[in-house]
C-alpha cells in the first residue's frame, strides 16, 4: 500500500472512531490505538506534505456569507467541440497520442493553491466570470487542504455528487416535488450554498481534469505527466486511458461498458492531446480549444405511441405542451412523458394523437421526442386556457411560436404569490413546494390563500396525483394545521405587499401594536414616520389596502389562522436595544430563524454582520476561525455559545 492510500485509510478510520465516540457514545478503538493511528497520520502528512480533506489533524470551521462574490477568470474557460462518432474521434487524433477520460456531469471549479494551501475556489460561471466558493470547496470530501508544492498552482476539475449520495439525499426529502431532478442539479446547488455547513452535508467530491499553472515543474511536454503530478499532490484525477487512433474504438468501448455501473455521473468522454506544445500550437476557434474534443454517447431510442398532449399553464402565462405516450424503458428508467416546449416544435414534428414516435433522453437525463414516424399533423391547438378558460393566443418571437393565456388574473399566474405565502419566513408551510402549488393551481384547487386550508375537499384527487399518496397527503394536512398558528408580522409579510419584507412588517406591527384595522387605515405620511419605513414602503403598503381584492383575500384568510398575542410594552422587553448576530448550527433552538424570532419577540434585533454596535455574536463553535468570529475579536465583541446566551439573556425572561 502506498503512502497516499494509507493516509486515506487512516483518515477514514479516525473519522469513524471520532463519530462513534462523540456522536454515538460508543468506542470502536482504545485511546491508545487512536493516538497511535493519529501519530502515524501526522508523520505521513509531514513526510508527503499532503493534508487530505477530513483529516482530524485540521479543523475546518463552517462559514456563511451574504452572497457569493464574482471574479473574472485569468483565462476564459472555453467549451469543447463535440462528436458522437468514434471514428471521428480517431480521425481527429491522427498520429498523436491522446488521453481519453470521463466527461463528468457536475460543476466545473477552478482551484488556486499558494504556499501549499488552498487559496481560492471559483465556479466556471459563464466561462469568463465565476462565483467564489472557497469556504464551500474546503468541505469537499476528497480535496487536499495542504499540498507539497509551494508555488502557485491553478487547476480545473469537476465537483460532483455520486448517484448513491444523490439517492440518499433525495430519500430524506418527503415532498416528491421538492426532490432534486438529477445529481448535477443537486451538486450545483450544494456547491453554491451561502452556508458552507450545508455543502459539507452533501458529500461533494472533486476530480481534477486540467492543470492550468505550476511554474518550475518539468512535465516533459506531457499531459499525463501533469495528471501524475496532481496525483502526487493528493488530488483525485479523473479516470483516463492513453489512446492512439488505432486503439480508440477499443478504449471507447471500455468506457461505454463501465458507465453502466459507474457511480459518478458522466455524460460522455473527453479526448485531449498528450503533447502539450503541439496541442497549444493549434490555438482555439472562437468557441473551442483545438487540443481537445468531447465525445457524447449516442442516444438510446425507443419507439412508442403518442396518446395525449397535456397543455400545462405556467406562472409566466405560457401554456406548454407535454407529450404523454405508452411507457418505454430508456437508460434504465421507465419514461411516459416528454416536454414538447412550444408550438413551433409541435408543428415541426407534425404531431397527432395516435402517431408512432421515437423518444430518447437528452444527455441521458431529459426525455425528448426525436422523430414522428406518422406525421399526421392533426393535433388541435387549444383556443382556451386549461386553467381559467380564457382565450389563448399564439405569440411569435424570434421565429418561435408559443401559446399564451390572455387573462392577466389567470390562477396559474398566481404561483409566485402562493410560493411566498407558504415560505419559511411567511406562513412556513412545510413540504408545499412550488411544483406542488403549480399542480393545485392548474387543477383549480386554489383561488385565494384561504383555499390552502381547505384542500381536504380534494383529498380523493390529491392522493391519486403523481408523487402523492395517503402519507404525503396527511403530512401536508398536518403542516397546514401547524401553520394556522402565526404572528401578525408573518401574516402581513405573507400577503406579498410590494417592498414589504418581514423586518418591515415587524416594524409596522410593533408601531400599531398589531391593530390590523389601524394598519390598513394608516395614511402613507404616518407610515413613513416609522423607524425603518421610508416613503416608498409607506406608499406601497397604503396602496395595497386601497384595492378591494386585497382586503377580501385577507378577510377570507383571517378565520383560518390564529394570531399569537404579543406584548409591545418596552418595559417588558428584556432584550430591547440589544443587537445580536447568529452563526453556525444550534442545539436548543430548531434553527437560527427560531432563535431570531425569540430574540425579536423580546425586543432585540438580529443582523447578518458583526459591527461595533453588536451586543454579542452567538456561535456554538466560539473558537473557530470563521470570518464572523475574527471580526468580533477585532472589534472586542463577545463571542458566546447558545447556552451562554440563554443563561445570560433568557434566564430572567423564563
Summarize the topology.
Layout: H1 3-23, H2 31-48, E1 70-72, E2 81-83, H3 86-93, E3 98-104, E4 107-114, E5 117-123, E6 129-131, H4 134-137, E7 153-160, H5 163-171, H6 183-191, H7 196-200, E8 205-214, H8 223-232, E9 240-243, H9 248-258, E10 266-273, H10 276-281, E11 292-296, E12 302-313, E13 319-330, E14 333-339, H11 343-349, E15 356-362, E16 366-372, E17 392-397, E18 400-405, H12 415-422, H13 434-443, H14 459-463, H15 470-483, E19 485-486, H16 488-494, H17 502-511, H18 516-521, H19 524-528, H20 535-546, H21 548-557, E20 562-563, E21 579-582, H22 592-601, E22 605-607, E23 616-618, H23 627-635, E24 638-640, H24 642-650
Parallel strand pairs: 2-11, 19-20, 21-22, 21-23, 23-24
Antiparallel strand pairs: 1-6, 3-9, 3-10, 4-5, 4-7, 7-8, 10-11, 12-13, 12-15, 13-14, 15-16, 17-18
Helix pairs in contact: 1-2, 12-13, 16-17
Task: Please characterize this protein's 3D structure.
There is one protein chain. With 654 residues, the protein is of the alpha+beta class. The protein folds into six domains: 3-48; 70-296, DNA ligase/mRNA capping enzyme (D-amino Acid Aminotransferase, Chain A, domain 1, 2-Layer Sandwich); 302-405, Nucleic acid-binding proteins (OB fold (Dihydrolipoamide Acetyltransferase, E2P), Beta Barrel), CATH 2.40.50.140; 411-483, 5' to 3' exonuclease, C-terminal subdomain (DNA polymerase, domain 1), CATH 1.10.150; 488-563, DNA polymerase, domain 1; 573-650, BRCT domain (Rossmann fold, 3-Layer(aba) Sandwich). Helix content is 34%, strand content 21%. The chain is built from 24 helices and 24 strands. The strands form seven sheets. It has a five-stranded mixed β-sheet with strand order 2-11-10-3-9. It is globular, with a radius of gyration of 29 Å.
Amino acid at each position: 500500500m502506498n503512502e497516499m492510500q494509507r493516509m486515506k485509510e487512516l483518515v477514514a478510520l479516525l473519522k469513524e472512531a471520532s463519530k462513534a465516540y462523540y456522536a454515538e457514545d460508543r468506542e470502536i478503538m482504545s485511546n491508545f490505538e487512536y493516538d497511535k493511528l493519529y501519530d502515524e497520520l501526522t508523520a505521513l502528512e509531514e513526510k508527503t506534505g499532503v493534508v487530505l480533506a477530513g483529516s482530524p489533524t485540521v479543523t475546518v470551521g463552517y462559514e456563511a456569507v451574504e452572497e457569493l462574490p464574482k471574479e473574472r477568470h485569468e483565462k476564459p474557460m472555453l467549451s469543447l467541440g463535440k462528436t458522437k462518432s468514434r471514428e471521428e474521434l480517431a480521425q481527429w487524433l491522427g498520429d498523436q497520442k491522446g488521453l481519453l477520460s470521463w466527461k463528468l456531469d457536475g460543476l466545473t471549479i477552478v482551484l488556486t493553491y499558494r504556499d501549499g494551501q488552498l487559496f481560492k475556489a471559483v465556479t466556471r460561471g459563464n466561462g469568463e466570470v465565476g462565483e467564489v466558493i472557497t469556504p464551500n470547496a474546503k468541505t469537499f470530501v476528497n480535496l487536499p487542504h495542504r499540498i507539497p508544492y509551494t508555488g502557485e498552482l491553478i487547476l480545473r476539475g469537476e465537483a460532483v455528487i455520486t448517484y448513491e449520495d444523490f439517492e440518499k439525499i433525495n430519500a430524506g426529502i418527503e415532498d416528491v416535488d421538492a426532490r432534486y431532478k438529477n445529481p448535477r442539479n443537486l451538486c450545483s446547488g450544494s456547491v453554491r450554498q451561502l452556508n458552507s455547513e450545508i455543502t459539507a452535508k452533501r458529500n461533494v467530491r472533486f476530480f481534477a481534469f486540467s492543470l492550468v499553472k505550476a511554474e518550475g515543474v518539468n512535465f516533459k511536454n506531457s499531459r499525463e505527466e501533469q495528471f501524475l503530478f496532481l496525483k502526487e499532490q493528493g488530488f483525485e484525477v479523473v479516470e483516463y486511458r492513453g489512446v492512439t487512433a488505432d486503439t480508440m474504438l477499443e478504449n471507447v468501448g471500455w468506457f461505454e461498458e463501465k458507465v453502466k455501473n459507474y457511480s459518478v455521473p458522466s455524460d460522455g468522454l473527453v479526448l485531449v492531446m498528450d503533447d502539450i506544445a503541439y496541442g497549444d500550437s493549434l490555438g482555439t476557434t472562437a468557441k473551442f480549444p483545438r487540443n481537445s474534443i468531447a465525445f457524447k454517447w449516442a442516444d438510446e431510442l425507443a419507439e412508442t405511441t403518442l396518446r395525449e398532449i397535456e397543455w400545462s399553464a405556467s406562472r409566466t402565462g405560457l401554456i406548454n405542451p407535454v407529450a404523454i405516450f405508452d411507457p418505454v424503458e430508456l437508460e434504465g428508467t421507465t419514461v411516459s412523458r416528454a416536454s414538447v416546449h412550444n408550438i413551433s416544435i409541435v408543428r415541426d414534428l407534425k404531431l397527432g394523437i395516435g402517431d408512432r414516435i421515437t423518444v430518447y433522453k437528452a444527455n441521458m437525463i431529459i426525455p425528448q421526442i426525436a422523430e414522428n414516424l406518422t406525421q399526421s399533423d392533426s393535433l388541435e391547438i387549444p383556443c382556451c386556457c386549461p386553467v381559467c378558460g380564457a382565450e389563448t393566443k399564439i405569440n411569435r418571437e424570434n421565429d418561435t411560436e408559443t401559446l399564451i393565456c390572455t387573462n392577466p388574473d389567470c390562477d396559474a399566474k398566481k404561483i409566485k404569490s402562493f410560493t411566498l405565502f407558504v415560505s419559511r419566513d411567511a406562513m412556513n408551510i412545510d413540504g408545499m413546494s412550488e411544483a406542488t402549488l403549480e399542480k393545485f393551481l392548474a387543477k383549480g384547487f386554489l383561488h385565494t390563500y384561504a383555499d390552502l386550508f381547505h384542500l381536504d375537499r380534494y383529498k380523493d384527487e390529491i392522493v391519486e396525483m403523481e408523487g402523492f399518496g395517503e402519507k404525503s397527503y396527511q403530512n401536508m394536512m398536518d403542516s397546514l394545521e401547524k401553520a394556522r398558528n402565526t404572528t401578525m408580522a408573518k401574516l402581513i409579510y405573507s400577503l406579498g405587499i410590494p417592498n414589504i419584507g418581514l423586518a418591515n412588517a415587524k416594524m409596522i406591527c410593533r408601531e400599531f401594536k398589531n391593530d390590523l384595522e389601524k394598519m390598513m387605515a394608516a395614511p402613507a405620511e404616518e407610515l413613513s414616520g416609522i423607524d425603518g419605513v421610508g416613503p416608498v414602503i409607506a406608499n406601497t403598503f397604503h396602496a395595497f389596502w386601497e384595492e378591494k381584492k386585497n382586503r377580501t383575500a385577507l378577510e377570507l384568510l383571517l378565520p383560518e389562522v390564529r394570531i399569537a398575542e404579543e406584548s409591545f410594552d418596552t418595559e417588558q422587553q428584556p432584550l430591547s436595544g440589544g443587537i445580536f448576530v447568529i452563526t453556525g448550527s444550534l442545539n436548543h433552538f430548531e434553527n437560527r430563524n427560531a432563535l431570531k424570532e425569540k430574540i425579536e419577540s423580546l425586543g432585540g434585533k438580529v443582523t447578518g454582520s458583526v459591527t461595533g454596535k453588536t451586543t454579542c455574536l452567538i456561535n456554538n463553535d466560539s473558537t473557530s476561525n470563521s470570518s464572523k468570529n475574527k471580526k468580533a475579536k477585532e472589534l472586542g465583541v463577545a463571542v458566546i455559545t447558545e447556552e451562554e446566551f440563554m443563561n445570560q439573556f433568557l434566564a430572567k425572561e423564563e
